[in-house]
Amino acid sequence: MTDVRDGTPTIACGERVRAQADSHDRAGRLAAAFAARGHGRGERVAVMARNDIEFLEASLAIASCGANPVPINTRWRAAEVAHVLADSGARLVLAHTEFVPVVTAAAALAGTAPEVLEIAMPAPLLAEAGLDPALAQPTGRHPLLEEWIAEQPDPLGHIDGAVADSMGLIYTSGTTGTPKGVRRQRMSAQQLLAIAGGTARRMGLAPGGRMLVAGPLYHASPNAVAVLALRMGTNITIMPRFDAERFLRHVHEGRIQQAKVVPTMLSRLLSLPGDVRARYDVSSLTHLIHSAAPCPPAVKRAAIDWFGDALWEFYGCTEAGTVTWIGAAEWLARPGSVGRPVDGSAVLVADETGKPVPAGEVGRVYVKGADYWPDFEYLNRGRPESPVDGMIWVGDLGRVDDAGYLYLTGRSSEIIISGGVNIYPTEIENALLALDGVEDAAVFGLPDRTGDLGEIVVAHLVPRPGHQLTEAGIRAALADRLAAYKLPRRVRIVGELPRDDSGKIYKRALIAAE
Question: Which secondary structure element, helix H or strand E, spans residue 45, and what is its range?
Fold first, then answer.
């Protein structure tokens, strides 16, 4: 590991610090190793790894030879991984030692035989992530990433169009169904520059700046921002796993300027005792950006009180990229909004036939990407049909106000129909998270097996540390906030909810467990 003392841009993860120049050299030599083995342009290369320096180096290496990086959720089981391996046709998988057994089992289920390149797990990473120290010992069944890098004396030379080729495929998160591969139309140099420039400007990235990677690099947004930051020479600190106080310590000690979080992380930061929060100076932050899931208004307001104008929010999707943005002052004027379209993107709230609904009325949220965003189709599925020319619907429901600000109300797959009335879980979740002592909440519907309502409302809650919650207390607290038909018929107090590291919740798992 390089001993960096001269102010050169670095990547840090736990105790490990590496000069970015060294990471670019390592990525180039890894790319040369890929090319020497016939891996290159248009190929899909899967990566199943925890947040670490090597994840970013692998991403750069795959892109340098024109292949598509396909990050895999580290929480997935073999059957879920098997779908992506089969769907993408990956012939090579880079995996941390911890995930080699999952990849092996997934390949068997998929009926494929990809080559596995094992990434050894350093002791500091294991300690920081709270993992078994025994994982520092590689399996011995596969070549190691360090071996491939060491065998190449020189980085792979520049390949025209490689970066454009590398951005041709990205998978949806799969929290509401099977992950879909979004195959993008090949982008021009102008499109690539527009996306990079727009992302850097709105995300607050700059050469020599300081950013913190708090979310999982297998998720599209943290990955894209971190890779761009590495290309720009922004100093990068990577958290192997999110911990609220450790996040604040990084911001305080590293004078972090930019970080990307999700609402669950904001809620956990707010759960810290006041004296703990007061120990850390967060004034260096200029861009604390959240997305990926709706932010409950009570959490958002408290976060603005703390972080001020540094708090930003955007809404988008894998298919269309970033669609809307909103700053703290705008949000305070329009609580609950996720902003207005930017950079030529567009939002239309309409019914299932594509007919626009009046302002303030809930409907399907149809979106179009920015002017520079590429067209797409789903891998092995084709182009999605839409009643609105040039716009798509990815399942979100919402409304717009008279000024064109978008408010999300949930997803169509989550609507609860009780007694013939549509109930939106997000509204109830927001009410629950406004209660003192509630850190996290999930609301969903279950069949009414003892009555004739069709479905009943069920809520699972996570208490903030030091708070005691009861079903009776929760229902009483909600009685003057929600109509009676929206009150949960069943309330469960749980230790945690099954969210992925990007903040999206697996409600299917909650329903299956009931």
Answer: strand 44-48
Alpha helices in 243-296 (DSSP H): 244-254, 263-270, 274-277
Contact assessment for residue 114 and residue 105, using Cβ atoms and an 8 Å cutoff: no
Q: What is the pLDDT of residues 212-269, one digit of tens each?
A: 999 999 988 899 999 999 999 999 999 999 999 999 999 999 999 999 998 889 999 9
Distance of CA 209 to the CA centre of its chain: 22
Tokens of 411: 């997803």
How many whole angstroms separate alpha carbon 88 and alpha carbon 71?
Answer: 11
Which tokens go with 231? 């290309």
Q: How far apart are CA 54 and CA 61, in angstroms?
A: 10
- Strands 210-213 and 421-423 turn out to be unpaired
Strands (E), 203-273: 210-213, 235-238, 258-261
Give the chain's largest Cα–Cα span. Answer: 72
Which sign, positive or negative, has the C-alpha torsion 10, 12, 17, 22? Answer: negative
The structure tokens 């994982």 sit at 135
Between helices 220-232 and 20-36, what is the axis angle to 10°?
Answer: 110
Closest CA to 212 of 192, 176, 242: 242
Q: Which neighbouring-strand residues pair with 382?
A: 378
CB contact set of 8 (below 8 Å; sequence gap of 6+): 19, 20, 21
Q: Does this model's pTM top 0.70? A: yes
